[in-house]
């Protein structure tokens, strides 16, 4: 190594040390991960009136507060939400047929258009009875959805790796000591730094070039209301208004009813809305007829017992997986991801009471990541509200491999 290369290497030492520190992995990394789907049949709280046999699904009344696509989004989801409900009611969830016959929306829309009638949202009274007689149905399923899309932008400073490597010569740029900071107005040209801004100091006093980037985050709030209106009396006999659903776009959406709408017609925000509306629609249809529901989670196995538990899940050996996760929890009682995995696995094994206990435990653990806590709380609230209506029997299909 000649004198010039030695000088260049010495200049790189602080940068290489800084990269090693900032990019080193955490001491304990998850060895095994698995995406699983908890599935069970949700039973109605009480039977419908004996005469309630045939129903029609009306367009949803949608109000969208979105500075970009408010009106377009409202029109789109007015029909999509109704199609979701219709599809769920027409899909058999258990052995035998659904107790309700659903008149196809194409037929109802044609009849209403011919009579120059339009019914959207939740409508009771004479308007409901008039439409019910016209469609020759016993009941009308109606819904109202409020969508709020909050988009936020903010900027932050981050290391400019392109300039950093260019200064060091690793990216084919000029070789020079990265600790050297050209002075404004000096003999060198192409000063990479702004005179009024001093870049952050790296190890060994090396100046690190930065750049400003813009980050965009979206927060969605969806409020749904559903009703089954008696077409003879014009009164609601089943009403459902779940808590407000919220979601950010940090996580991947889990919108599975692609058969109702071409996903190519949906933008990323629509996919998140679809996940939330689908969740609410499933809960509502479960009040009318037995409905199979599914909820997807990623669980993590840490340590030997945790890894073995994940492998047991892949083999559908849920009882053994529970035992292994319990052993992993005893070894590391402060690891919240193990407790959550234990709760999910108990659901896969059909032990819902035990699962709810573990969900409650993980929600009360200290130092839980904020994003993880949102998932834990949603799982706890979901099972707490469903546990009295779950049809006990053989659990549905569960595990599917990571992509």
CATH architecture of the largest domain: 3-Layer(aba) Sandwich
Proportion of residues in helical segments: 25-40%
At the fold tier of CATH, the topology name of the largest domain is Rossmann fold
How would you describe the shape? Answer: flat
Helix count from the secondary structure assignment: 11
* Average pLDDT over all residues: 76
In total, how many domains does the architecture comprise?
A: 2
Order of helices and strands: HEEEHEHHEHEEEHEHHHHHE
Notes on the protein architecture:
The protein is α/β, with parallel strands linked by helices and 403 residues long. The chain folds into two domains: 32-38 and 295-400, Tetratricopeptide repeat domain (Serine Threonine Protein Phosphatase 5, Tetratricopeptide repeat, Alpha Horseshoe), CATH 1.25.40.10; 44-148 and 220-289, Rossmann fold, CATH 3.40.50. The protein contains eleven helices and ten strands. The chain has helices spanning 3-23, 70-90, 105-114, 126-135, 161-168, 268-288, 303-314, 318-331, 336-348, 352-363, 370-386; strands spanning 32-42, 54-57, 61-65, 101-103, 139-159, 210-230, 236-240, 245-248, 291-301, 399-400. Strands 2, 3, 4, 5, 6, 7 and 8 form a seven-stranded mixed sheet that branches. A three-stranded antiparallel sheet has the order 9-1-10. β6 and β7 (236-240) form a beta hairpin. The longest helix is centred in the N-terminal third of the chain and has 21 residues, at 3-23. It is flat. It starts with a helix and ends with a strand. Mean pLDDT is 76; it is low at 19-28, 187-197 and 395-403.
């Amino acid at each position: 190594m000649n004198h010039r290369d030695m000088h260049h290497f010495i200049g790189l030492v602080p940068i290489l040390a800084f990269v090693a520190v900032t990019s080193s992995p955490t001491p304990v990394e998850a060895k095994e991960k698995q995406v699983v789907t908890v599935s069970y049949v949700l039973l109605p709280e009480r039977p419908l009136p004996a005469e309630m046999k045939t129903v029609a699904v009306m367009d949803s009344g949608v109000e969208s507060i979105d500075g970009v696509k408010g009106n377009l989004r409202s029109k789109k989801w007015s029909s999509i939400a109704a199609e979701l409900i219709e599809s769920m009611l027409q899909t058999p969830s258990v052995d035998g047929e659904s107790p309700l016959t659903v008149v196809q929306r194409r037929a109802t829309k044609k009849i209403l258009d011919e009579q120059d009638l339009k019914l959207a949202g939740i409508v009771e009274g004479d308007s409901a009875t008039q439409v019910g007689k016209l469609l020759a149905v016993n009941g009308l399923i109606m819904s109202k959805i409020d969508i709020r899309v909050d988009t936020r932008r903010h900027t932050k400073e981050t290391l400019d790796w392109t300039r950093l490597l260019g200064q060091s010569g690793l990216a084919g740029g000029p070789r020079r000591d990265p600790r050297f900071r050209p002075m404004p107005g000096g003999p060198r040209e192409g000063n990479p730094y702004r005179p009024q801004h001093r870049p952050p100091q790296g190890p060994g006093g090396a100046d690190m070039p930065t750049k400003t980037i813009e980050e965009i985050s979206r927060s969605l709030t969806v409020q749904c209301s559903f009703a089954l209106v008696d077409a003879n009396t014009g009164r609601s006999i089943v009403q459902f208004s779940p808590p407000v659903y919220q979601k950010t776009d940090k996580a991947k959406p889990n919108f599975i009813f692609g058969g109702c709408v071409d996903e190519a017609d949906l933008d990323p925000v629509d996919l998140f809305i679809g996940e939330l509306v689908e969740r609410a629609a499933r809960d509502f249809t479960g009040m009318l007829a037995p409905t199979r529901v599914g909820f997807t989670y990623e669980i993590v196995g840490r340590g030997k017992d945790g890894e073995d538990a994940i492998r047991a899940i892949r083999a559908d050996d849920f009882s053994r997986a529970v035992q292994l996760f319990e052993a992993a929890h005893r070894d590391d009682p402060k690891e919240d991801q193990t407790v959550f995995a234990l709760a999910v696995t108990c659901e896969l094994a059909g032990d819902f009471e035990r699962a709810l206990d573990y969900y409650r435990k993980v929600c009360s653990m200290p130092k839980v990541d904020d994003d993880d806590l949102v998932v834990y709380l949603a799982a706890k609230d979901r099972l707490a509200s469903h546990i009295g209506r779950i049809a006990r029997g053989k659990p549905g299909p569960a595990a599917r491999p990571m992509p």
